[in-house]
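We modelled the chain as a single entity of 164 amino acids. Its sequence is:
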Amino acid sequence: MKTPVFTRPACAISAFLAAAAALAVPASARNLVPSDPYDARILAAYNCNKAVVGGDYSETTIARCRAEYDKTVAFARTAQSPTPAQRSTLAIAKGLSMMTVAAGYAKIDGVMSARACQAIKGIDSALAGYVPAAPNGLEGLQTLLVNTRDEAIPKCRIGGYWPG
């Protein structure tokens, strides 16, 4: 049986997402302070990522990572006048959660599925909140998210899950 055309690129993006999801936050960012509520959102995304990369590509764990994203969104809505650097920190936290979700779905589904591409849209949406003019020591993570998004979008287009 011939492999569908859009499955081959999906395998490549699945491998890329898995590698990207295996991020090392301490090595990719400034020293994160667990008591800082903004940094805590990044650390929560990182801890979920560790579970998935550790081999728990289950629907339950991926749902937990999605819940971390939802908690970060809720936190962002209640934040009182965050600085541009804090807004960027929240953008990174949301993007990291969605990167883990995308990698998990790509791994489970074996292709860049609609739900994996939906998570890529979450990365894209999160990056819109990043403020490049306010350096905060998370530039390496922002680059990782941009590269992940940019690598995945063409695969999502091939599968018909991204407009354009």
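As a brief sanity check on the tokenised model: The helical segments are 7-21, 25-28, 37-53, 59-78, 84-109, 114-127, 139-158. Residues 15 and 47 are 20 Å apart (CA to CA).
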